[in-house]
Amino acid sequence: MSEPKRSRPRERHRGMVTLRRDAIPPSTADQRLLDSHLRHEWKTKDAWRALRILSEFVEGFDTLADLPPAVSVFGSARSKPDSPEWRMGEDLGGALARAGYAVITGGGPGVMEAANKGVAEAGGLSIGLGIELPFEQGLNEWVDIGIDFRYFFARKTMFVKYAQAFVVLPGGFGTLDELFEAVTLVQTRKVTRFPVVLMGTEYWSGLMDWIRATMLPDGKIGPEDLELLFVTDDVDAAVQHIKEAAEQLGEDNKLGGGS
Question: Of 5, 19, 73, 131, which has the fewest beta carbons less than 10 angstroms from its beta carbon?
């Protein structure tokens, strides 16, 4: 009689450390840093946390410095393999790889896994930037280069620094966070302008209608800000938009003397 199959224990990665079962703490590094209820730790632990934060930036910069041109892809971790956004993510990953781009995702399941899978099967380079969460997900099997971060802000820096474009598929609060941070950085010229593509016209239509009907007439954004978002259902159109933006940037750099 065969032995019953044992379930895999809960697991969380913190840098080089792997924690399982009861060794997993009830809170994350981000929570311990940002939670105002932990004021008593500010003078005793925050200075040491600064060194840990610095180490995450050093690890990320050192690991990703030699990446080829890359595109960051965002979307829901909850999407199932039979969902339209999963199929779109997989097609997008393959198309970006064939166009010569590496693809950076959050490294988790759902749309992230779909995009990483599409890249890997097309022979491209697939990067996953994981994050410590109370509901640990782990990096999906299609990631070629993976980094696990404790701190969201260090991870977000890597998404922006090493990407020539953002592509945002249907997702939740985390996806919206990445979307609006990217658009804000481009709008305020904190980064060189790069394309932000929304894929899934039906999903994003309510948001875009509200931006046009409420934010724009009320003067909270300008007409030119609407041009920062390119909305499509067509994978090839998304990739072409990214390529054209890169070519335009190259022309602008030539005209500006590369400064």
Answer: 5
d(CA 149, CA 133): 10
- HSE of 257, CA atoms in CB hemisphere, 13 A: 1
Helices (H) and strands (E) in the chain, counts: 8, 9
Global pTM reads 0.83
Nearest to 63 by CA among 152, 163, 153, 147: 147
Is the CB of residue 59 less than 8 Å from the CB of residue 16? Answer: no
pLDDT tens, N- to C-terminus, the chain (259 residues): 555 555 555 666 666 566 666 666 767 765 666 666 666 666 667 778 888 899 999 999 999 999 999 999 999 999 999 999 999 999 999 999 999 999 999 999 999 999 999 999 999 999 999 988 766 567 999 999 999 998 899 999 999 999 999 999 999 999 999 999 999 999 999 988 889 999 999 999 999 999 999 999 999 999 999 999 999 999 999 999 999 998 887 766 665 655 4
Bridge partners of residue 105, in order along the sequence? 128
